[in-house]
Amino acid sequence: MESYLETAIEIAREAGGLIAQLAKRPQEISYKRRSDLVTETDRRSEALIVERLRSHFPQHAIVGEEGGAQNTGSDYCWYVDPLDGTTNFAHGFPVFCVSLGLAYQEEVIAGVVYDPTREELFTAERGAGAYLNHERIRVSKTASLS
């Protein structure tokens, strides 16, 4: 399992680097639906992620936000949001990330969220906890904010 998580981290960082590079350019915006926009950066990030996942795990299924599903019949399925926060990104607001999740037989077993503007890497693995930049994180014990 570690190789899945390590590979996802490597891919998320690479996609984040591409996004950071493309953020400096004017964005061409189109709409999937009336209130759901997409940029060329979304498409390029997803293409990179899918290509890398395919090269490491050719039998795994992949569901991408921009490109739909590539079902291979595998028990493993990657869920990809290549640019989570597209509206923020398109308007120059630096709050966005790359999100990758892996499920085995429809049960989530690993996830990576990478924020390239803050260099924050969130990772989680079933049975191993969650981490921010390799430091263990936990949910708050506070039950109410009032």
- For CATH, the homologous superfamily is named as Fructose-1,6-Bisphosphatase, subunit A, domain 1
- Shape call: globular
Alpha-carbon Rg, integer: 16 Å
What is the second-level CATH architecture?
2-Layer Sandwich
The tally of structural domains comes to 1
Structural class: alpha+beta
Trace the largest sheet across and list its strands.
Answer: 4-3-5-6-7-8-9-10
The biggest sheet, with number of strands, parallel, antiparallel or mixed sense and barrel status, is: 8 strands, mixed
Count of DSSP strands: 10
Q: Report strand %.
A: 35-45%
Element order, helices and strands?
Answer: HEEHEEEHEEEEE
The helicity comes to 25-40%
| Helical run tally | 3
What is the mean pLDDT? 90
CATH class membership: Alpha Beta
* CATH topology value: Fructose-1,6-Bisphosphatase, Chain A, domain 1
Description:
The chain is an alpha+beta fold. The protein has one domain (2-137): Fructose-1,6-Bisphosphatase, subunit A, domain 1 (Fructose-1,6-Bisphosphatase, Chain A, domain 1, 2-Layer Sandwich), CATH 3.30.540. The chain is 29% helix and 38% strand. The protein has helices spanning 2-22, 40-56, 86-90; strands at 29-33, 36-39, 61-64, 68-70, 76-84, 97-104, 107-115, 120-125, 129-132, 135-137. The strands form two sheets. It has an eight-stranded mixed beta sheet. Strand 7 and strand 8 form a beta hairpin. Helix 1 packs antiparallel against helix 2 (40-56).
